[in-house]
């Protein structure tokens, strides 16, 4: 059938089962928006900024496991989207972003709102396209969805000139796609899997190292089964939180720069690391020469370029975590002797007892850790949790009781302030029955505050808990520890009235200074069923601890405020 390029876009989304998309229109993409207006199978959400549109599509994808969808226009519309694309790319989030472009004949002429979108997006997308004629669109759109969600997921960008969206061509949407240069490996090499199984049963001090790929592959059940069979302790990265329930005795918690003492010590003393789809991020490894230096390393990852990229690997296995564990688990079950690890488990148990993840509570000032813990007690698995980036992000990772995969939405790799509110909005569209909570700071919340309006318009009662210490908290912490407390541009004494601000957007606001006020405010926000801000005045100089200074080894942790003061 003959369709315009714009109509082809819409038909492709129908074939791909898209039900929600986010975006912001403009001249170059108006033909597509005209077709969006005419269709009735997906809901288009107008955000108030292009960056927020991409973050919302990202949050939707992280929460649901589906492909996120967003539209932007050319020029500044697209450049505003870049931070969102880079955020999704770094954390391997499947997404399609379609941008309008000036007409083909104007490309390269410095036309109004022209920008080299494909050139700009190349470093921060899994793949991108500049569409040259409408007849290419069925193939390109099918490829884009396939690339976005297969192998190691990621965002795909499609840039469509305005004349191409108006051009007529035959539309036949492919049922399947085959790309000679892109064939992800899902099934691991059996010889390598057998070697890994032998290494596990022979180890004396093994540890599981769970990365974000465990979540992306939906391998939570398989991972829990293997850990239950082996009784081998496990650590989680920021992006893997929720894979193991808090009460699992094999869970040592998060590792890395702000990880738990026992988790970091386990990695430092292990003789075997079973790495399931982590990135070996510098915030996890610390000083590379000291990272797991006593351990042989098994690394399972669907992305072959990730294996051996940062650290040398002894047992490389390219494949999907789910499929690899389906082969590995029976082999291990046959030969495992869980008593072999008794001494190791007892050692790590002792580490947890000596230095548990804790804080000094107070009834005089509000401690941010208490706020997060209390939210977890009140909501638990009823909530999906988003964060911005800073101290509040780390406190949330440390103290919220995450109990299922995709419960925690945060910018791990890029560390994007302004991510939390639109991501929480996207999650609320994906799961309307879940309470959507965004933990933010007084710095981060203002970066995409405009999308309180989007939440109000679409009746999505996202609750923003703003931990206010009148600082850019993490910047302040670093300046205190490593720059002799020279607080260069990290003090933010002048602030809006957050209660009045959210009320101006049609929401409800609370300012709390006591525990009783916080509990009442959270219950009130839930009952009001409107977008909300709960501003919590917290202890100003509270530190995120433990902490490993940049370049330090995992076993060299700052554990207490007294140690921090001496740093």
Task: Characterize the structure shown.
This protein is an alpha/beta fold and 567 residues long. It folds into three domains: 2-170, Rossmann fold, CATH 3.40.50.970; 190-354, Rossmann fold, CATH 3.40.50; 368-545, Thiamin diphosphate (ThDP)-binding fold, Pyr/PP domains (Rossmann fold, 3-Layer(aba) Sandwich). It has 22 helices and 20 strands. The chain has a six-stranded parallel sheet with strand order 3-2-4-5-7-6, sandwiched between helices. It has a six-stranded parallel sheet with strand order 11-10-9-12-13-14, with helices on both faces. It has a six-stranded parallel sheet with strand order 16-15-17-18-20-19, sandwiched between helices. Strand 2 (20-23), helix 2 (30-38) and strand 3 (43-46) form a beta-alpha-beta unit. Helix 3 (50-64) runs parallel beside helix 4. The longest helix is centred in the first third of the chain and has 15 residues, at 50-64.
* Residue-averaged pLDDT: 97
Describe the largest sheet: 6 strands, parallel
Binned strand content: 15-25%
Shape: globular
According to CATH, the homologous superfamily of the largest domain is: Thiamin diphosphate (ThDP)-binding fold, Pyr/PP domains
Overall number of strands: 20
Helix content: 25-40%
How large is the radius of gyration? 24 Å
End-to-end distance: 70 Å
Low-confidence stretches: none
How many structural domains?
A: 3
């Amino acid at each position: 059938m003959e369709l315009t390029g714009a109509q082809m876009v819409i038909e492709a989304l129908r074939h791909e089962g898209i039900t929600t998309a986010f975006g912001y229109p403009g001249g170059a993409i108006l033909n597509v928006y005209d077709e969006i207006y005419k269709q009735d199978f997906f809901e288009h959400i107008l955000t108030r900024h292009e960056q927020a549109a991409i973050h919302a599509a990202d949050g939707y994808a992280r929460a649901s496991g589906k492909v996120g969808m967003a539209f932007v226009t050319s020029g500044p519309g697209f450049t505003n989207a870049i931070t969102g694309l880079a955020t999704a790319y770094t954390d391997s989030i499947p997404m399609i972003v379609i941008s309008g472009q000036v007409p083909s004949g104007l490309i390269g002429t410095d036309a109004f709102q022209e920008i080299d979108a494909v050139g700009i997006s190349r470093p921060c997308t899994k793949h991108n396209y500049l569409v040259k004629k409408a007849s290419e669109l069925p193939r390109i759109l099918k490829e884009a969805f396939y690339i976005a969600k297969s192998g190691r997921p990621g965002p795909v960008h499609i840039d469509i000139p305005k004349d191409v969206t108006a051009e007529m061509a035959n539309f036949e949407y492919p049922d399947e796609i085959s790309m000679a240069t892109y064939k992800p490996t899902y099934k691991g090499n059996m010889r390598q899997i057998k070697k890994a199984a032998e290494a596990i049963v022979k180890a004396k001090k093994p540890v599981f190292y769970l990365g974000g790929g465990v979540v992306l592959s939906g391998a939570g059940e398989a991972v829990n089964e293997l850990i239950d069979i082996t009784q081998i302790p496990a650590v989680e990265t920021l992006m893997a939180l929720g894979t193991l329930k808090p009460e699992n005795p094999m869970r040592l918690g998060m590792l890395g720069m702000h990880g738990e003492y026992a988790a970091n010590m386990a990695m430092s003393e292990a003789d075997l690391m079973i790495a399931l789809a982590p990135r070996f991020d510098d915030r996890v490894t610390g000083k590379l020469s000291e990272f797991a230096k006593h351990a042989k390393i098994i690394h399972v990852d669907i992305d072959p370029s990730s294996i051996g990229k940062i650290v040398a690997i002894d047992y490389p296995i390219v494949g999907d975590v789910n499929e690899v564990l389906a082969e590995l688990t029976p082999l291990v079950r046959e030969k495992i002797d869980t008593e072999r690890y008794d001494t190791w488990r007892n050692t790590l148990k002792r580490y947890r007892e000596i230095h548990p993840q804790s804080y000094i509570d107070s009834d005089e000032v509000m401690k941010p850790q208490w706020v997060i813990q209390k939210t977890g007690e009140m909501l638990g698995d009823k909530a999906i949790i988003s964060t911005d980036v800073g101290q509040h992000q780390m406190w949330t990772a440390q103290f919220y009781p995450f109990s299922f995969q995709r419960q925690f939405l945060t910018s791990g790799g890029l560390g994007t302030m302004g991510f939390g509110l639109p991501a929480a909005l996207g999650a609320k569209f994906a799961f309307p029955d879940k309470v959507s909570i965004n933990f933010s700071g007084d710095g981060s919340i203002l970066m995409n505050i405009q999308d309180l309006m989007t939440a109000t318009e679409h009746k999505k009662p996202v609750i923003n808990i703003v931990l206010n210490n009148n600082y850019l908290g993490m910047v302040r912490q670093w300046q205190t520890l490593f720059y002799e407390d020279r607080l260069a541009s990290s003090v933010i004494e002048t602030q809006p009235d957050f209660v009045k601000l959210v009320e101006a957007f049609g929401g409800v606001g609370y300012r709390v200074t006591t525990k009783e006020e916080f509990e009442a405010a959270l219950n009130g926000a839930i009952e009001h069923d409107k977008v909300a801000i709960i501003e919590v005045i917290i202890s100003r100089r509270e530190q995120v601890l433990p902490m490993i200074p940049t370049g330090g080894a995992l076993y060299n942790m700052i554990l207490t405020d007294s140690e921090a003061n001496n740093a």
